Amino acid sequence: MKIETKFFGAVDIDEAQIVQFPHGVPGFEKERQFAVLKHDDSPFYALQSVERAGLAFIIIELGQVAPDYEIDLPDEVVAELKLEKSEEALVCAIVVLPADIKQATVNLAAPLVINVKEKRGVQIILNNPAYGIKHPLFAPVRDLKSAK
After folding, report:
1. How many helices (H) and strands (E) does the chain have?
2. Residue 92 is part of which domain span?
3. Helical segments of the chain, H only
């Protein structure tokens, strides 16, 4: 099927690529079907609404940003996603890209969890002060002058 996208124009997707979000995404509860689109070798994906071309989120796997990131999914989330093995879960963060790309952040407090096998997803809100909503995407670059 062909869908219009925010970042890539019209693209053909297989219906098997569509991820169902039974509750939508917070703020967009009525949008329940998304496609996860990847561009070339980029570490980023676009979580694109299937029905609304202008609605897409840039996402990145949390292991790319915070390798030690761990969450303990509540049993009801595991059941809703139909997760049988942890390997079936793709855990991502939404990326916020301001005009100055160096200031980009990711939301660690509200990860997206997608069962890649069952094509079901949720965004969960964590109550963990270690995970903020504006975690820097890029580590600060060392000042080479002061390192001498």
Report:
1. 3, 11
2. 2-136
3. 62-65, 75-81, 144-147
Q: Is residue 104 part of a domain?
A: yes
Number of domains in the chain: 1
List for the chain the helix, strand, coil content (%; round to 5). 15, 35, 50
Least Cα distance to 119 among 44, 1, 18, 48 occurs for 18
Kindly state whether residue 54 falls inside one of the protein's structural domains. Answer: yes
CATH code: domain of residue 6: 2.30.290.10
**What string of pLDDT tens digits covers the 148 residues of the chain?**
999 999 999 999 999 899 999 999 999 999 999 999 987 889 999 999 999 999 999 999 999 998 889 898 999 999 999 999 989 999 999 999 999 999 999 999 999 999 999 999 999 999 888 899 999 998 654 444 444 4
Does 142 reside within a domain?
no
Q: Is 113 exposed, middle or buried (0-12, 13-18, 19+ CB in 10 A)?
A: buried
Quick check: is 39 in a domain? yes
Report how far residue 70's alpha carbon sits from residue 89's, in angstroms, rounded to the nearest whole number: 12
